[in-house]
Write a structure and sequence with these properties.
With 232 residues, the protein is α+β, with helices and mostly antiparallel strands. It has 2 domains: 38 residues; 179 residues, no CATH class. Helix content is 36%, strand content 19%. A 7-stranded antiparallel sheet has the order 1-2-3-5-4-6-7. The N and C termini lie far apart (104 Å).
């Protein structure tokens, strides 16, 4: 009788051991998820220091006496000009200009020298620039004072009218709006064509040409221009 019980117990133990081994083998056969599969679902963020990129241009005008205002985080400063620019994927919005810039509570377009919209990556900046171009080309200066179907549904585009002059580009993960004024610029009132060339040169853009959303003082609308960036 004891022998029978012993044999039965041994049989059960052997069966349990075999079952555990099977479970272990099944687990080992299951594919291990690579960390790269998880990474692919995450939108990569560019490490691009736009403040450092534009620094040579600002120092050319002001040496070290210039200001930077982060309009994305500074709730004390109102700026209507930035409203039409796409905000999806935006990281920071900067205004650059003279040391007086930080004193303005209601910052207007002509009071700055440069606006920068910094996005999470280049792809988002490209998409945003394409949207901006499509919308802004639908508006002329005449439309601002009269009825316009586009402005009825997109009233923020009233803040980006072309009559002051404009120079907007997309570079890497940023959209840059170089301020132009009928009253001149802070680079010893250089001619605007020269001013634009100096701006591109100081950015050190490596491509042969760049697309510009452009207007000059008094223009009724924006236009798309291809501007050479080769520096000799």
């Amino acid at each position: 009788m004891r022998t029978l019980k012993t044999i039965l117990i041994l049989t059960i133990l052997i069966a349990c051991s075999e079952e555990k081994q099977k479970i272990k083998e099944v687990k080992l056969e299951q594919p291990i998820l690579e960390s790269t599969e998880i990474k692919d679902t995450i939108v990569k963020t560019d490490t691009f220091n736009i403040k450092k990129i534009v620094q040579p241009f600002l120092e050319r005008m002001y040496q070290n006496d210039y200001s930077i205002v982060n309009l994305q985080s500074d709730s004390n400063t109102i700026c209507n000009y930035i409203k039409p620019f796409p905000k999806e994927g935006i990281k920071d919005i900067y205004a650059f200009g003279s040391s007086k810039l930080k004193k303005y509570k209601n910052l207007r377009y002509p009071q700055a020298d440069l606006f920068v919209f910094n996005y999470k990556n280049k792809s988002l900046a490209e998409i945003s620039f394409k949207k901006l171009k499509t919308s802004i080309l639908k508006v002329t200066t005449h439309a601002y004072s009269g009825p316009n179907d586009f402005l009825k549904t997109n009233p923020n585009f009233r803040f980006i009218e072309p009559k002051h002059g404009g120079y907007i580009i997309q570079y890497k993960s940023s959209i840059l709006s170089l301020v132009k004024r009928c009253s001149g610029n802070n680079l010893k009132n250089a001619k605007w064509q020269q001013y634009e060339r100096i701006f591109l040169k100081d950015l050190n853009i490596k491509t042969d040409s760049i697309e510009v959303l452009w207007s000059r003082c008094g223009n009724l609308s924006f236009e798309i221009k291809k501007q050479h960036t080769t520096h000799r």
